[in-house]
Every structure is written in C-alpha cells, then in structure tokens.
Design brief:
Layout lengths: L7 H15 L5 H27 L15 H5 L17 E2 L3 E2 L17 E2 L7 E6 L7 H14 L3 E5 H4 L2 H5 L4 H4 L3 E3 L12 E6 L1 H10 L7 E5 L14 H10 L2 E6 L2 E8 H5 L7 H6 L6 E4 L4 E8 L2 E5 L7 E7 L2 E8 L1 E5 L7 H4 L11 E7 L9 E4 L4 E5 L7 E5 L2 E6 L4 E6 L4 E4 L4 H12 L23
Length: 472
Amino acid sequence: MLRSSGCPDQQSDSARSSKHIEQPSRSPRRRREGKRSQRRADGHEQRLWEMERRRLPGQHEHSEHAGSSCDAAESSPKRRAHFLHGPYPATHFGPKACILPNPTSVMHIQDPASQRLTWNKAPVNVLVIRKIRDESLVEPFKELCRFLVEEKQMMVYVERRVADDATLSKDEAFGSIRNQLCTFREGYDDISDCIDLIICLGGDGTLLYASSLFQACVPPVMAFHLGSLGFLTPFKFESYRTEVAKVLEGNAAITLRSRLKVKVVKDMLQRTGQQPENREATLEHNGLLPHGHTNSEAGKVTLQLQVLNEVVVDRGPSSYLSNVDLYLDGRLITSVQGDGVIVSTPTGSTAYAAAAGASMIHPNVPAIMVTPICPHSLSFRPIVVPAGVELMITLSPDARNNVWVSFDGRRRQEIQHGDCIKITTSCYPVPSICCHDLVYDWFESLAQCLHWNVRKRQARLEDVSDSSDTEN
C-alpha cells in the first residue's frame, strides 16, 4: 500500500471534512451510479493494463491510453526502444470517436528486431543445395559435407543429380562421405517433414530453388555467397565452420521473407471442348496434375504455388501489347496494357521489379508490389498494396492475344480467356538467417550487389568567399 507523506492528523481532518462535504450532496441513486461508473472505469483500466502487458517490450513506451492527449505522450521521459514496427496506434480519436472493436482481430505480429532462431531440439537433418553446372563449387561442397557428417554427425540430404556428379564419383577420398548422403528427386520425393536446416551454396537462385521445394512450412535457410550476384546470400564461405557452428547453437537473427500464395484456375472446357474423362492426359502432359486439383464438374484446373520473388505476366512471343485486367479484393482496379505486369514480394522488389522501375522494399515490410512492364501509359506508376489483399489477374475480353505467366522464373504457362490468377500473401515465409542483422544485411547487399547510390563525391570548396552565391 502507498502511504501519504502528509501528517496523519491533517490527513484525517481533511478526509473527514471532504466526507462531510460530499455526503449531503449525493443521494443513494447518485451513489449507485457513481459506483457503477467507477467499476466501468476500473474495468477499462484493467483492459488497458492487459493490452499493455501483452505487447512487446518497448511498444508500451509509445502507446497512448484511450483519450489521452498527444502532448502527454510527447512529454514522456521514456526513450524509444529498438524495434522495427511502428508504435501501437491509439484507438480513440477525440472525446467521442474510436475504432469499432473487433473480436476477430489480426493476429499478434512479433517485432522483426526480436526475431531470433532457436531450436526446440538439436538439428539432425540438413539439406545442402549446390548450384549445378558450376565446377568451382565442387570443392566447397565436399568440404562442407565432410564437416557436417564427420564433425557434426549430421544427416546430409542432397539432390540425386548432385550426388551423381561425375567429379564426385571419381573422387575416391570422398567416396565414404558420398555413400552416407541421402538423395532425393524434385517432384518425386517429399522431404518437407524431415529437414531441419537448409544450407545453400551458390547465388540467389539456390535460395529460390529451396523455397520451391517447400510448399508449406520452410526450415531455416543459411545461404553462402558463391554465385554471381548474391543479394540474398549474406554469408562468406571462408568462415563456414564458425558460422555453421553458431547457427547450430541457435540464437541467430532471422529475416522472415514473405511469399506469395498463387492460385491459377484454368477453364479447360472452354479451351479444348473436351469431356472431363478425356482431359487428364492433356493436363498431365502440360504438367498440371502433379501440382494441382481438378474439378471435373466445372472443368477447371487449380494450380497452387508458393512464390518467393515474383509472379510475372507477360505477352510472350506475341508482338501485340498484353491486355490484362487487375482486380483487388474482387473489384476491377485497372487494365494493364503493355509488355506485362509484375506482382512481387518485398524480397522480389530488388529483382525484376527493380529493373522495371519499382522501389526497393525491406523484406520485413508487409506489402505486395504491383509493377507494370513497359506500360503504354505515362502515368502508370508502380504501386504498393497491403499484404492481406487478394489480387486477381485475368485476360481482358478485348485482348488480341494470350499472355504467359511464370513463378520465380519457373513453371511458365499460357493464360487464355476464362483463366485467372489469384495472388495473396502466404502464411509460410522463408526464414532466412542473417549474417549480422536484418537491417545491416539488406543495406550491405544494396551497396555491394546493386551499388546503390554510388557516385563520385563532390569536392569541397577551397575558398567559400569565391562562391557566387555569397553576398557582401
């Protein structure tokens, strides 16, 4: 209990006098109403306290109580904590306005600055992805596999075509390690439930390939820069022993790179006029059945994919402009007339979208970027929409030609009238392990890989008095 620093006699006298003044002026009805209002106020304060307790460390330093003024918040002596999400917004606006309470509110999002990797159990199975058709990566691959098998006693998974490489087969010293490798084939063997860690040796394409192997939950990915660009590969292979040991111990910073959940619906009845029982041979030939679902009644084929970089819709081999309609949450937003359109994640904003003139977005910004490719309009600029919306792309009724779609540069398919592409943010991100932290790694990649804002430094003036802008 808090005690007052005043004199007890003075306190009791003041209390008696205040009670003597208040009691005659309050009827029993008013006292009951006062008690009810006090209980409501106490309940409101209790709810605010629970909200403050559930927030992340540092967020309560910015949040304002309902009805509190901005001046009181600005005069708070507490300093801003180190986190990347903005402060918790006030939900009351003025004396009478507030946000309508919603029991089905958005899930709590952890602050990116506090995202650290930890292991519930020691990792045992590791997937090593090596860039193929690159002989310079054979020795680093053998060195890493020997380290993981002999020193860390881990089970190493590799793709079968990597294990069957002629260079590895001829190396007798590596034969004992090669016989202990577990192999798989893409599209035939499901390894999504047995991999604890992914290590990539190569460029950004190895990380995109690792994402395509896991269409649901993705294990942590550690990428070593052994390719040409390496924007998504922050680790240097020279220190792989130290870096891998740190990751296996846990407590490493990670970046959750959001992916796009893409659904392609094709109207096969309108396209071919075939009966449902005669369509499966055609679909399997086009590579749709192994990854999709067939609705025989409606004659539609649904292809679902998880995309890390971007979905690209282009005019393909046609010389005409592509003409597609863009819908957002079921409403027509615009028609894209040009070479095509790019729908990308923040991770993909530094890839094809950047070459098409889009802004570069940090991977932890929850957003989807829509970028036109050479639009036949001077006012069509790239836009950024919230991550929770659903985009739909269809071929315009008056389009002169079909369009083509690709997903992270793979699985290219033709889109005709009656087909549609639905895109939204996936709930399965790619946890990319950081070398330093998620802010430093991104700006380091901008500077080293894309040479962001590189120019010759302006020389300083030797004598300021010689400037023509100065006045005597």
